[in-house]
Amino acid sequence: MENYYQILGLEQSASDEEIKRAFRERAKKVHPDIAGESGKQAMQKLLTAYETLSNHDRRAEYDRAYIRFTKQYDFDYRTFLKERRDDPESQAKLIFFDLLHLEEDEALEVWHELGGLDFPMDAYLDREDWMDCSFILAEELDKRGQHYEAFILLADIIREERRRPYFRHFMEEVDTFIKTLARTKLMNSVDDEVLVECMEELLELGYPRKDEARWLRTMAEALVRLGHIGDARQALQSALQRDPALPNVVQLRRRLGIGM
Are residues 93 and 142 in the same domain? Predict the structure, then answer.
């Protein structure tokens, strides 16, 4: 199995310049324009490795997770885990192991077979491993258009981080991730009732008032489409209390009879 450093042919101590140079050299060999259709998977793995290792925060996070969770074994650890299909702890560890070794499709297949969001990963992994695993899993789900599942995993991470910090400086990336889902992706992948529930969940996570105002606006828009005009009016009024200069609400205010 390979890790991100092995994919680029580097030691873990590699410098930023060495990472960049290794990516360019290998990309020339596996790019689909050169290697054809067979190069697509290799190129995707190369890109994933480069995007992680070229970002200092993500590299530190990856190193921390990989070093802590992935050890040197005198046997085939992955086979050992795969054979223990009736043991949920082994299957949770298999999901994390595969994610760290760029076996994303296999990891997601196991996760879905175990029930997806209904599978309590936090019951079978150490707290830090669960948080790391959930973030990587959310990234892979998002890539595949499963934005709601990614959102729920991130919300759980943020809630736990608020309770007791672990990610610390890396939380900026987690926050950006969930805000991007809320702003541009969720509304095209879930129905309005679920969208309202997602906005309510965001409001419970303790973000700045201007962020909350935008989520309340999204909630009001969804409630209008659902025909819940009274609730929509209340949501928009709450949004304007948080941010009186909230943009893109002129038509919505008129629709709900809220004065300018």
Answer: yes
Note down the domain range covering 173.
57-189
To which residue do tokens 């608020």 refer? 162
Q: Which residues of 178-190 are buried (b: 16+ CB within 10 A; e: fewer)?
A: bbebbeebbbebb
Per-residue pLDDT tens digits of the chain, which is 260 residues long: 357 888 888 888 889 889 988 888 888 787 665 555 666 777 778 888 888 888 887 888 788 777 666 655 545 778 888 888 999 999 999 999 888 887 899 999 999 999 999 999 999 999 988 998 999 999 999 999 999 999 999 999 999 999 999 887 778 889 999 999 999 999 999 999 999 999 999 999 999 999 999 999 999 999 999 999 999 999 999 999 999 999 999 999 989 988 76
Q: Please state the domain count of the chain.
A: 3
- Shared domain check, 157 and 238: no
Looking at the fold, whether 32 and 145 belong to one and the same domain comes out as no
Helix segments in the chain, DSSP class H: 4-8, 16-30, 32-35, 39-53, 56-69, 77-83, 88-100, 104-113, 127-143, 147-163, 171-180, 192-203, 209-226, 229-242, 250-256
For 183, list phi and psi in degrees, rounded to 5. Answer: -80, -35
Q: Are 252 and 216 within 8 A, CB to CB?
A: no
Q: What separation, in Å, do the N-terminal and C-terminal C-alpha atoms of the chain show?
A: 61
Are residues 123 and 5 located together in one domain of the fold? no
